[in-house]
Amino acid sequence: MPQPAYQRVVLKLSGEFLSAGRGGIDFERTGRLAEELAEARALGCQLALVVGGGNLFRGRDAQSAGLERVRADRIGMAATVLNALALGGVLSARGLPVSVFSATPMAPLALPYSAEAAREALDRGEVVLAAGGIGDPYFSTDSAAALRALELKAGALLKGTKVDGVYEADPVANPGARRFDAISYDEALARDLRVLDGTALALCRDGDMPLLVFDFSQRGNLVRILKGEALGTRVFQEVKDD
After folding, report:
1. How many helices (H) and strands (E) does the chain have?
2. How many other C-beta atoms are found inside a 10 Å radius of the C-beta of residue 149?
3. The domain containing residue 199 runs over which residues?
């Protein structure tokens, strides 16, 4: 079997990929997601995931109703653990070995997260689900994904979205918006393109972590990327002359 283009990746997905657009967890949809992850894992690539919690709880909505930021963020971190447990259970039911870690203490539901333990799980062939954000408020799951990619020494951070890459403006509101095949971290930050949040982009830039943004809603795209096909948008560290 050909070797995958990446030996280890971190995949960031929004919680919406586990729902059917109505919030909550749709287990039929989660099952289809698990099938695609199993196909990706079969290529021999070590796979870690960070999944958001917006299908269960949106901190911004809670804040607008008067909930203070720290409390809202902690509820959001708990929501990501629920998603990871659900997805991990579905993956296990399909015969994949899985470890669910949480940076927010959730014993006995999830293992305490450490980079060393997560790397050991990956080396054993397990799919790693890294939940609970980074364990502190004021940091998004984008930031958690960037940090995990660096800690786990991934070959790339993959951001699965519902559009086919990074655009200069919202392609839904602006149908003529240009899509980038590649863009530097500095330009993405300067343009405020919201590929990831600013903290996550800066982490990836400073850690020289390749970022690939692609349409995860199209079945098979994850496998195609892991096989080395050029899909979506590549965000890279610009090499500057001395």
Report:
1. 8, 11
2. 29
3. 8-236
For 132-180, the pLDDT digits (tens) are: 999 999 999 999 999 999 999 999 999 999 999 999 998 888 889 999 9
State which H helix or E strand residue 49 sits in.
strand 46-51
241 in a domain, yes or no? no
Domain containing residue 128: CATH number: 3.40.1160.10
Measured CA to CA, the distance from residue 105 to residue 46 in angstroms comes to 25
- The DSSP symbol for 40 reads H
The single residue listed with the structure tokens 């993956």 is 91
β strands within 77-217, DSSP E: 98-102, 111-112, 127-131, 156-161, 166-167, 179-180, 182-184, 211-215
The reply to whether 78 falls in a domain is yes
Tell me whether residue 49 is in a domain: yes
User: Closest Cα partner for 140 from 242, 213, 59?
Assistant: 59
pLDDT digits (tens, 9 = 90+) for 9-46: 999 999 999 997 778 999 999 999 999 999 999 999 99
Tally the domains of the chain: 1
